[in-house]
Amino acid sequence: MLRAMLRDLRAHLGRVAMTVAAIVLGVGFVVATWVVSDSAAATVSSGSYRTDLAAVVQARPKNPADAAMPAEVVGRLAALPGVTRAEGVREGYAALVGKDGKIGTTSWAETGGTDWDGSQRFALTAGRGPARAGEVALEKQAAEEAGLSVGDSARVLLGGDRSDTATVVGVFAYRATGWEFDPAVAYDEATATRLLRSPDAAPAAAPGFARVELSGGDEQAVVAAAKAALGADFRVDSGSELRAKQAEAAQSNGDVIRKALLAFAAVALMAGVFVIANTFTMLVTQRTRQFALLRAVGARRAQVRRAVLAEAVVLGVVGSTLGVALGVGLGLLAMRLLPVVGEVAYVVSPWAVLLGYGVGVVVTIVAAYGSARRAARVSPMAALRTDAAVPRRSLVLRSVLGLLAVAAGAAMVAVTSPEDLTEPKRVLAMAGAVLAWVGVLLTAPILVSTVLAPLTRLLRSPRPVTRIALRNAVRDPRRTAATSSALMIGLSLVCAFATVGQTLSDETTAQVRSAVPENAVVLRAAAYGTLDDTVRTAALAVPGLTGLAAPRSGQVEVVSARGTAEDAEFTGLDPAALGTALRPAMLAGDADLRRGVLLAERVATRLGAKVGDQVRLRFPVVGADGDVTPVEVPATVAGVHEGSDLMRGQLIDDALVPAGVLRHGDSMYAVGGDQAALRAGLERAFASRPDVLVQDREQLLDDLLAPYQLVLGLVYVLLGAAVVIAVFGVVNTLALSVLERTRELGVFRALGASRALVRRTVRRESVVISLYGGVLGIGVGVLLGGVMQYVIMANPVFGMSVPWLTAVVALAGMGLVGVLAALWPARRAARADILAAIATE
């Protein structure tokens, strides 16, 4: 009997190939994910970290802005017993200017410069290390982005209005100790001492070391000696601890990537389940009389069921084998494309292979189980009938469970509220959305009959093609639902993420356009840097400038009159600039910093503060000796504002902020009578400062929205696998529909229908199924996205922004999918022999 089943598989290679393709894509995604995450962790653990470190020493400064250690500390550490090398490491502001005159984004400018040494920090890939003034070595990725190589002249910005020009003598890959960013440039020690400093440091401040790296034979002895010599003001980490933390961080990052990608793989596999189930439904339907004959000659139900499941196992093993091979190849390709320092460790663990086979076989068996049970229920008497059909279960239980799931999911979302959306409530709301989504999948067959059946009665066109196509789709709602559900899974998630992205984009756009006047010119720091007082002074000197807002943010503790306190951010501003260069979205009171502080809505709610109340602002002030002392400033609540990314936290008059409070600002907003003239003046003022970007409001918006578009683009690509798999499901459904209607199509042709009419009918049915799946996916996806943005941003569920462009493009794409998927089935239906089709039993 098993041989007979396998022989039948060989007789239907076309549909078997579609099933295998669905398995291969899903399994390949899973295995590639596992290989990439394992290989990334193994690469860090097997050679991209340093082995020459016994210990690393850092200061525990009282002043967070002053973490540099003096040279005498290096001398003390070098004299310790067991220490063979004590190397002080300098860090400072440095931004590499590319050939295009722009600042790169591969390094953080605040610590973009360091000093060259002979340790394992640097792995030369070209040239040599810098040895004298006028020479510089560049980090590999930074050099590639800047378009520079050995022998070129490089310009390096050093903070403020300082810069340096040097010849590139080497290119290196950098091995971090675990916490620092990769520097873009490296100077010789004397030049680094002279040029590199923190942008917050005073010009006359003595240069120091960011850390000291110690080498020695006995690591434990070196660590103990360093701790004893320096005391509690310094932090000493052993080399083995740093390596273990790096390996742990790599493993953790790999797990995060693995979980995220496995979620997309699960979506692809879920779509594959419907395709596989449809394929087995097709195979079982075609062999109804065969199963009946087997039952008539003595085959038991269990034997028939086991035979169908054996077919599933064979397909699962074949698909899993190909999927594992595909996943291993994709993993190798991904690791070669990733920027990794040193040798790449490529790992294919047994777990990845076993998981691939397990997933492929189990998914196939689960998808085929329903068809196996239906095949086993075929009556032996069906062998005597010419219209034998596989018995089908009632849809009542499935529909009831689906409706209950939808209702329960909606209730789980409804019991939460945006005013008090704690972490457990966020999880509850998201779980409710997923449960409702599953409920829609369960009720899909009933939805097919409910939505499509009335259309067959409404459409009374003289041309019956569409009406016939609708009736064919409604004829087997379970199969049509499975096909449309496969499409709906991928498309609903695409629309859900598009809804979240559109909502974030619209909210960001509304915030920026509300806060920044249309005629404003924006100054922004490049390379994740800051805008210091030199930028403010240069901007104020530009003719035509009438207002300049230079927000700088820091930390403050707000204490209410009742004594309750809230740690929060503050933004210091010039009162004259508020309302002209920047406009906060006020909820209560006036936007006048001369009258007092403007509290953020969240802080005002938690403190129970309202306009007119007295509060105390407790600032952490750093003294001349480095001690941090809280300084309280009394203030009146002049208003409450919504808050935004441009004006974070409490808005405070710059004059109220005590000296010594650490603040950071990366943007300034200028206004004047003539925007074009003002922008031209600012561009001239900063022509030699590529670390300062001059933009208008719309360019600022483009930069702020770019990360959203990048993430969404990646999501669309990953979810595209589910849509591709779903296309196979459409082809399978149409092929099954054509096979079941062989006699009907023969009669249709005998009555005068042309081949072109038959092709149009099949194509129209495909388009109907695809568009139905598209409409269902868009509707469910927008609602799911509404819950997702509610969980993320605490906006009302129905306050989401609908991504109309994505929806229209997706619907048009589904129509195209329907046309393409019908090419082969429609051609086969049109070419059927009339007499043979009529004679078919």
TrEMBL record:
Membrane topology designation: Multi-pass membrane protein
Highest rank taxon of the organism: Bacteria
Signal peptide bounds: none
Keywords in alphabetical order: Cell membrane, Membrane, Transmembrane, Transmembrane helix
Coiled coil (UniProt feature): none
Transmembrane segments: 12-36, 261-285, 306-332, 344-369, 395-415, 435-459, 480-500, 710-739, 769-792, 804-824
InterPro entries tied to this protein: ABC3_permease_C, MacB_PCD, Macrolide_Exporter_MacB
Domain MacB-like periplasmic core: residue ranges: 17-215, 480-662
ABC3 transporter permease C-terminal domain mapped to chain residues: 263-380, 717-833
Cellular component per GO, a single term: plasma membrane
Gene Ontology MF terms in the entry: transmembrane transporter activity
Transmembrane recorded as keyword: yes
A Pfam family assignment: MacB_PCD
Subcellular localization(s) per the UniProt record: Cell membrane
Similarity-based family: Belongs to the ABC-4 integral membrane protein family.
Protein name: ABC transporter
Organism in which the protein naturally occurs: Catellatospora coxensis
